[in-house]
Amino acid sequence: MPYQRRVLITLLGVVGVSCGILLLLSQRSAGSIAFRLMQDKVLAIAASIAPQIDGEQHERIRKQEDEAGPDYGAIRRVLRATHDANQSSALPVTFVYTLRPSTGDGWEYVVDAAEEGPEKSHVGDPVEFREASERPRLEEARVDDAFAKDSFGTWLSAFAPIKNRQGTIVALVGVDVEARAVLGQLGQLLHGGLVALGLALLIAAAASIVLANRVTAPLKVLRTHVAAMGEGDLTTRVPVTTRDEFGDLGAEINRMAVGLQEREALKGALVRYVSSQATDAVVEEKAEIETGEERRRVTVLVADIRHFTALSQSLPPDRVFAFLNEYFSTFIDIILRHRGTLDRSVGDSVTALFGAPLEDQDQERHAVEASLAMQRRLAEFRERWTLPGDLPVALDIGIHTGEALVVRVGHDRRMDFASLGETVTVVSLIKSLPQTAGAGIVVSETTAKGLRNALPLGRLGEVSVAGSDRPLALFTVDMPLPGA
User: Fold this and answer.
1) pLDDT digits (tens, 9 = 90+) for 131-158
2) What's residue 272's pLDDT?
3) Alpha carbon distance 138, 60 (integer Å)
4) What does the CA dihedral 437, 442, 444, 450 come to, rounded to 10 degrees?
């Protein structure tokens, strides 16, 4: 998944989850506050009615026929006045009534403020409770701890004790309010919160797109310039326009490009230096340089740094380039001192020739001795550069002797080598074999013959070479490697 899309999804997710949690908490808090306010109001209404009711009058109402008497009428007027006074608020009172214990553990209605109709309760009608928690207690005022739901709606009830002149509790006054209006307002609050959440997500999406573009735009610029460097354009530079992490990264990439240019310039200069020194040696020996070509036996050495990729990832770029600069300059000097010539260098790989442009009867021995010197110098590098100890940094070296077509151009003091690709291909094949991995220095059969037992060798195996009718034997140099 593209980084820009991941940034967008992450930002939207953070905004959505944060707003959702905030909406949930605010809704729960609002619901809790609203419920407590409803409890307080209903209980206050019940508590204000109870002292207005005469306990002795209430005790004289015993049967349904007493509903026509003055005692029932007096109490009903008090209840009805409270009912009518609480109709204009957001929490209107629906039912106001009195009740008292009946036979057993039951309760019965006594006075109901409701008008005549199916909803009016009469003296002696039993009070039905769906849950035991809804059942009131005669000795105290109380309000329900939760809403009660039935087919008529959602209710909240409160009860307050009615006392006679002696202070004895003889009944309870009950107040029922329907919570539909309050719950509707809470629903509107939730709906408004959801709309706000949707708008927040839309705003967050737009902001996330802008932010994602601003975050990824510098990355795209960096990618373009790094890709150009990877294709060989070391003159490209990242425009550093900010002072943040992207600006720091761009500056580091520019320093990396400068280091790469310096390394390539150094390598080119060293190649020209080696070639010039070899040609000067020909001139000093008064060897005639004529235009022409000839086939000549040459020995090719290819050296690679083992685990170089992991090494370059574990060190800062400037240290990697400094290491490579010293690596190439030192190893090319070793090759020169052993009568070799640098053919090319790519990445951490060095390809050297022995036996050209000057003929060398001991070119195989010189190539192996140069390899051993390179191994010793790399061991010194490991200690001096304090390379990571968990990386077995070493040299993998392959050596093969074969023929090459030498094209000599005397007037330009230049010698070109044609038909060298086959010999280099054989060396690359030797180094890529699983059995040669980590062997150190591996030489081919033709190189081993040229050594004439000058160095101890151990047979490693054989490899098939394209165009040859028999396999090529491989040998290792049986000498201890530094740091092994």
Assistant:
1) 777 788 888 888 888 877 766 677 788 8
2) 47
3) 18
4) 180
Helix (H) or strand (E) holding 262: helix 245-284
190 pLDDT exceeds 60?
yes
DSSP 180-222: HHHHHHHHHHHHHHHHHHHHHHHHHHHHHHHHHHHHHHHHHHH
Q: Considering only CA atoms, which of 372, 367, 373, 369 is closest in space to residue 447?
A: 367
Q: Over the stretch 418-448, which tens digit does the pLDDT of each residue have?
A: 445 567 777 777 777 765 666 678 888 999 9
CA atoms within 13 A on the CB side of 278: 30
Q: Determine what percent of the chain is predicted with pLDDT higher than 90.
A: 9
CATH of 288-477, one of 3.40.50.10190, 3.40.50.2300, 2.40.150.20, 3.30.70.1230: 3.30.70.1230
Cα-only R_g, the chain: 49
3-185 to CATH, choices 3.30.450.20, 3.40.50.2000, 1.10.260.40, 3.50.40.10 = 3.30.450.20
3-class SS at 61? Answer: coil
Report residue 292 as tokens: 């022409």
Q: Of 54, 74, 79, give the one whose Cα is nearest residue 166.
A: 54
Q: Specify the pTM.
A: 0.42
Farthest-apart Cα atoms in the chain, separation = 150
User: Does the N-terminal peptide bond of residue 357 adopt cis geometry, omega within 30 degrees of 0?
Assistant: yes
* Cα distances (Å, whole numbers) of residue 257 to 179, 196, 235, 252, 477: 74, 51, 7, 9, 38
Q: Give the alpha-carbon dihedral of 194, 198, 204, 209, to 10 degrees.
A: 160
CA of residue 140 relative to chain centroid, distance: 60
Q: Which amino acid is at 238?
A: V
Sequence-distant (≥ 6) Cβ neighbours of residue 223 within 8 angstroms: none
Question: DSSP letter at 68?
Answer: G
